[in-house]
Specification:
Mean pLDDT of chain A: 81
Number of domains of chain A: 1
Oligomer: heterodimer
Structural class of chain B: alpha+beta
Number of domains of chain B: 3
Low-confidence stretches of chain A: 1-9
Largest sheet of chain B: 5 strands, antiparallel
Helix content of chain A: 55-70%
Order of helices and strands of chain A: HHHHHHHHHH
Largest sheet of chain A: none
Order of helices and strands of chain B: HEEEHEEEHHEEEEHHHHHH
Low-confidence stretches of chain B: none
Shape of chain B: elongated
Number of strands of chain B: 10
Radius of gyration of chain A: 20 Å
Number of helices of chain B: 10
Strand content of chain B: 15-25%
Number of strands of chain A: 0
Chain lengths: ~240, ~290
């Protein structure tokens, strides 16, 4: 059978971080920040009990230093998953900051992040769990959010706003008490179309999740392990 | 960016993993379990109007369905069909086994003899696979099903390897059943499965007083060095059957006293007849004297 079970269209940004091409490194870094900044910020706030201001500085300075020193390019896939590597690097960063007894100074170009939104989410998250479990949960949330946004953008480009709206109503806003018939009436389509749209959106959502995952993992083995961790832990 | 609640996250994880059976003849019924390299579901075959098990595999390169299909044995679940889901994942369907897992079976069945006879039946498909150059690499009670009529099926060949495949150095298996060489990432061969069978025998005997010959069988099967283990699963099963029949076992050198005890145990009926005969002769002898 020649069909690949996982999409392989996107290149691993973890590998691209070590690229000789500066533009490719920057692009890879931006993707990485998009997936990881929020889990790290929340992790600093909840697991490290840092103030809002400290957590903002720690997250900013972590990414800034990581980019300048290219420390992320030292990742060795044989030792741990990239997610674990990043968290341990962040732990060390926070710990060094604490030992220094002062906030790390920001340097170079700042990464612009929406801390207001992240802060608002902290109060809405469920009960606290162990630090590594918390980071894992926030990482899942972040990867899924990236996938949802990419799906939304793709649907807008393709003129499939109704497809996405049905997915949003039924799977994201959890209006599952709403019947397919009601959704069909709301969007002026046949009930069978609701079923088809939803099935197509779910399939594409899965593709987006796996594409995002492929970007933030270094090897095929790590990708498969993370796919299992991401998709297999719900039950 | 959309904030996703914990409830929505769980739901999205569920829908992203649940197989999309669009375009297949199958309808999803429920998840049955998770095993080596995939998830197994119960699905309904609309064409044949029957329930079958469907495994959606993570890594089609492993050729799990092909490995099982090559192993035609009553103790190995036959593959019905393979295909590709709408989302690109590979699946294969197989007979839906009704029964209980060995670990569940052990909770309800405490008789040693019954457990040992069952164990020898587990060795049969494993020996057959070894004879065909296939090593299971993840034998454990959770991967053995005991059918309604005592039939034994060895399941989950997801991490199985054929002899001709290059060693991938990936550590697979389950702690407690994994031999030392496998946990070091070294190549697993038939003797690695022998170790796991030994651990399963130990599991089946847990909580019971274990006679020395049986202890010796477990120890030989679970020897640290592969060369010190049984050469194959059939040899292991033969030793267990010898124990059941009161015969000497190859793994244990018994003393004269133990040999006599075993001989007496085996020939209890004959000895009773001889003893009764002798008693009668004595009675006759003394009655004639009087």
């Amino acid at each position: 059978m020649s069909v690949a079970p996982f999409p392989t269209t996107r290149r691993s940004v973890v590998i691209a971080l070590a690229s000789a091409d500066a533009a490719e490194r920057t692009r890879a870094f931006d993707t990485l920040v998009a997936c990881y900044w929020k889990p790290l910020y929340k992790y600093a706030r909840v697991a490290w009990h840092r103030s809002r201001e400290d957590a903002e500085d720690l997250t900013q300075s972590f990414f800034t230093r990581a980019f300048e020193k290219e420390s992320l390019a030292t990742y060795d896939g044989a030792k741990a998953s990239f997610r674990t590597f990043l968290r341990l690097l962040f732990d060390r960063h926070v710990s060094n900051d604490w030992k220094a007894g002062q906030r790390l100074k920001r340097g170079g170009a700042e990464v612009h992040l929406d801390f207001e939104a992240a802060e608002a989410e902290i109060g809405r998250d469920s009960a606290p769990v162990a630090p590594d479990e918390y980071f894992h949960r926030e990482w899942v949330r972040s990867v899924f959010s990236v996938a949802v946004e990419r799906l939304r953008a793709a649907c807008a480009v393709e003129g499939k706003q109704t497809h996405f709206a049905i997915f949003e109503r039924y799977d994201l806003e959890r209006e599952r008490e709403t019947s397919y018939r009601e959704l069909a009436a709301r969007y002026g389509i046949a009930e069978t179309q609701v079923t088809n749209y939803l099935a197509a959106m779910r399939r594409r959502f899965r593709e987006q999740v796996l594409e995002a995952l492929r970007e933030v993992t270094a090897t095929e083995r790590e990708f498969r392990a993370e796919a299992r961790a991401l998709l297999g832990g719900s039950r | 960016m959309t904030w996703l609640s914990d409830d929505t996250l769980s739901h999205l994880q569920y829908i992203a993993e649940t197989p999309d059976l669009t375009g297949t003849r199958y309808q999803l019924v429920r998840e049955l379990g998770r095993g080596g390299m995939g998830v197994v579901y119960e699905v309904h075959d609309r064409e044949l109007d029957r329930s079958v098990a469907m495994k959606v595999v993570d890594d089609p390169a492993r050729g799990e369905a092909q490995i099982i299909a090559a192993l035609e044995h009553p103790g190995i679940v036959p593959v019905h069909d393979t295909g590709v889901l709408a989302d690109g994942r590979l699946y294969y369907t197989m007979k839906l086994v009704r029964g209980v897992r060995l670990d569940e079976w052990r909770r309800d069945h405490r008789g040693r003899t019954e457990a040992l006879r069952l164990f020898t039946r587990i060795c049969e498909p494993v020996a057959f696979a070894h004879a065909n150059g296939v090593v299971h690499r993840d034998l454990k009670p959770e991967n053995v099903m005991v059918g309604e009529f005592g039939a034994v099926l060895v399941m989950d060949w997801g991490v199985a390897r054929t002899d001709d495949v290059e060693h991938d150095r990936v550590i697979v298996g389950t702690l407690g059943y994994m031999p030392p060489e496998q946990s070091r990432g070294e190549r697993a061969d038939a003797r690695s499965d022998i170790y796991a069978l030994g651990a399963m025998l130990q599991f089946l005997l847990h909580g019971e007083p274990v006679p020395r010959p049986l202890q010796a069988i477990v120890q030989r099967a679970m020897a640290k060095e592969p060369r010190d283990r049984y050469a194959d699963a059939r040899e292991l099963a033969t030793d267990v059957l010898c124990f059941l029949d009161g015969e000497p076992v190859s793994a244990y050198r018994e003393s004269v006293f133990e040999r006599s005890g075993r001989w007496i145990g085996r020939h209890r009926a004959l000895l009773a007849i001889v003893a009764a005969y002798l008693v009668m002769r004595v009675i006759v002898f003394f009655s004639m004297k009087l």
